[in-house]
């Protein structure tokens, strides 16, 4: 029996906690990101359209990646392709599609704004939204837990037998800590790109380790692919961070 409900009813309507939680997290992240852009002196007039397209692109990529990496599960039943309320969004699939779309829109809407400054404003908001999303989304979905465990912190999840490592809660705490660290670091490191690079570097490593140690091959989201993607993202972040710090040193 699950410790958390996955749905609730209002009359004949059925609401899935997973989707509702992600929607709340996306809205909070949007509002926070817009405020960060304004605080950084960046025009936010087109940010609503930017965010809407990015969310659609991210959801499409996340779902597509999950289907492709779990093809044996989805191939026999097309209806499962669209059952997103049961979970099945691969983080890095969303990132893989959303990043090029975001870069294109950034170039189109904010040509005179440096990419480093733009990323510094957005990435802490994305990480904060991700932290909230892990707590409000996967925590309430089917098959939301990690490995089996007999430890006191184990939680029962719908669709899984036995107590499970509460991976969504752990990841939410990790992302919240990273967000707070980036906010603290931004008070001392002013070089454009440094905050974005640090966020990518740490988040990529932590996500890969979570997949390896807490989820592993038992997950339904392409475990090896997630680990490799996390390392690639971390390496890209490290290069951006080193570039920013080196520019500060040479200046």
- According to DSSP, the number of beta strands is 4
Helix fraction?
55-70%
H and E order: EEHHHHHEEHHH
Termini separation: 60 Å
Biggest sheet features: 2 strands, antiparallel
Radius of gyration over C-alpha positions, nearest whole angstrom? 19 Å
Structural class: mainly alpha
Residue runs with pLDDT of under 50 for 5 or more positions: none
- Tally of individual helices: 8
What's the overall average pLDDT, rounded? 88
Report strand %.
Answer: under 5%
- What is the molecular shape? globular
What is the total number of structural domains? 1
Q: How is the largest sheet built, in terms of strand order?
A: 1-2
In a nutshell, what does this entry contain?
This protein is mainly α and 251 residues long. The protein has eight helices and four strands, in the order ββαααααββααα. The radius of gyration is 19 Å and the shape is globular.
Characteristic terms for this protein:
251 residues; mainly alpha; two-stranded antiparallel sheet; 4 strands
How would you characterize this protein structure?
With 251 residues, the protein is mainly α. It has one domain. Helices cover 64% and strands 5% of the residues. The chain is built from eight helices and four strands; from the N terminus they run E-E-H-H-H-H-H-E-E-H-H-H. It has helices spanning 17-39, 47-69, 71-74, 91-109, 115-136, 167-186, 194-215, 223-250, and strands spanning 7-10, 13-16, 155-156, 163-164. The strands form two sheets. It has a two-stranded antiparallel ribbon with strand order 1-2. The longest helix has 28 residues, at 223-250. The mean pLDDT is 88.
């Amino acid at each position: 029996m699950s410790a958390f409900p996955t749905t609730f009813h209002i009359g004949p309507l059925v609401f899935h906690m997973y989707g509702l939680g992600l929607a709340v997290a996306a809205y909070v992240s949007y509002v926070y990101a817009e405020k960060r852009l304004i605080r950084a002196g960046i025009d936010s007039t087109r940010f609503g359209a930017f965010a809407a397209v990015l969310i659609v692109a991210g959801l499409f990529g996340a779902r597509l990646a999950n289907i492709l990496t779990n093809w044996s599960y989805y191939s026999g039943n097309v209806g499962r392709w669209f059952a997103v309320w049961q979970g099945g969004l691969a983080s890095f699939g969303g990132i893989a599609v959303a990043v090029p779309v975001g870069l294109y829109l950034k170039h189109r809407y904010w040509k005179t704004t440096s990419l480093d400054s733009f990323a510094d404003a957005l990435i802490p908001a994305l990480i904060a939204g991700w932290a909230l999303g892990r707590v409000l989304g996967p925590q309430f979905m089917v098959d939301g837990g990690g490995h089996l465990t007999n430890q006191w912190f184990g939680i029962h999840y719908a669709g899984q037998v036995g107590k499970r490592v509460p991976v969504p809660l752990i990841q939410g705490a990790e992302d919240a800590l990273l967000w707070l660290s980036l906010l603290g670091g931004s008070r001392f490191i002013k070089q454009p790109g440094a905050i974005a690079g640090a966020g990518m570097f740490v988040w990529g490593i932590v996500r890969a380790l979570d997949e390896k140690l807490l989820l592993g091959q038992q997950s339904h989201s392409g475990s090896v692919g997630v680990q490799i993607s996390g390392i690639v993202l971390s390496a890209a972040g490290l290069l951006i961070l080193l570039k920013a710090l080196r520019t500060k040193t040479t200046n």
